[in-house]
Amino acid sequence: MGEWHPDILGEGFEQSSLPLGEDAEGEVAATLVRSRPHPGARLFGELRDTDILYVHGWSDYFFQTDLARFFTDRGARFFALDLRKYGRSLRPGQSPGYVAALDVYDADIAAALDAMGTARAGHRLLLLGHSTGGLTLTLWASRHPGVAHALVLNSPWLELQLGPLGRQALTPLVNARARLEPLGRHPAVDLGFYTRAQREVGTLPDSPEGWRPAQGFPTHPGWLAAVIAGHARVASGVDVGCPALVLLSARSTVALTWNDAMRASDSVLVVDDIARAATRIARTVTISRIEGALHDVFLSAEAARDAAYAALEEGMRALG
Q: Is the Cβ–Cβ distance between 64 and 90 less than 8 Å?
């Protein structure tokens, strides 16, 4: 097990580097962050035998300290994983966020679970994923049935923004370019509206340079082909082997110019398509639509944020 060191989030948070060998760009590692319960935490709370593993989304890293405290206040052990080539794990010369297959992250997750000692402690495992992290954990859980006790997804990227028909039409073109030029560059499609919305509602902290660019990381054909393959798997139906709770905004605002409605809606995904896709991931799926929520429901304005935590609280009781 690796050593724990102070984390950039300050008191109460520590990190440990998880070496993962090498790829074509050199040495790769993931980073596991753990939250130490504060003195007022209910160490014998309802989640005292539960470990949480959080996985972030695209162009992101873990910084949601309030989310960690929600769980540690209830007695859980909270861990968050910065996947290879993201945030704390991003090394000079690497293509940020790039993988050619989402199941590459099996190694990151395995290393995290080993460092957490969940199996050794006899704890239940709750997986918590946002956006692309939600897709990654959904597919991982379907390949590892019986490992997770519950799955909580925060605006998971389960379907392409073009919808099922658009995805099917685009797939041959993306796959062809991925074979010829996997690290080719796509035109920028993130106009920075989601970042602006977070800033305007006051939920976006300052981030280390390069960890969370306002218009996202550059995207590449090999990576997009991997994501679309994941969407196709979800569309065909998977079973994560445990109950799932899916938190989504009540509505989307997708536009080429800034719209004030983006302060109170998902400006990244088409949430109605995500809700439909979510019904294909488990036998028991609870979908909670949060009025006024952003793409990350826990980074919304105060009223929507409170509603998201209330839905999470209710969902945790239902998940047992």
A: no
Q: Give the integer Cα–Cα distance in Å for 151 and 282.
A: 10
Give which of 293, 302, 7, 1 is closest to 154, Cα–Cα: 293
User: Residue 228 contacts by C-beta under 8 Å, 6 or more apart in sequence?
Assistant: 160, 167, 170, 171, 174
Domain definitions of the chain by residue range:
5-319
Phi, psi of 126 (to 5 degrees): -115, 125
Matching CATH number, 5-319, of 3.30.1490.20, 3.30.950.10, 3.40.50.1820, 1.10.3380.30: 3.40.50.1820
Distance CA 14, CA 4 (A): 6
- Residue 145: CB atoms within 10 A of its CB come to 11
Q: How many CB atoms lie within 10 A of CB 207?
A: 15
- Cβ atoms of 47 and 74 closer than 8 Å: yes
User: Residue 233 region, left (φ>0) first, then alpha (ψ -120 to 50), else beta?
Assistant: alpha
| Residue found under tokens 């010829």 | 180
Distance from chain centroid for Cα 113: 16
Tell me the per-residue pLDDT of 260-287, one tens digit each, with 9 for 90 and over. 999 999 999 999 999 999 999 999 999 9
State the pLDDT confidence band at 43, using cuts at 50, 70 and 90: low
Q: Give this prediction's pTM.
A: 0.96
Least confident span in 142-156, 178-192, 290-304: 178-192
CA gap 55, 130 in Å, rounded: 7
Which strands make up the sheet holding 244-249, listed edge to edge?
Answer: 5-6, 13-23, 26-35, 77-82, 50-55, 124-130, 150-154, 244-249, 285-290
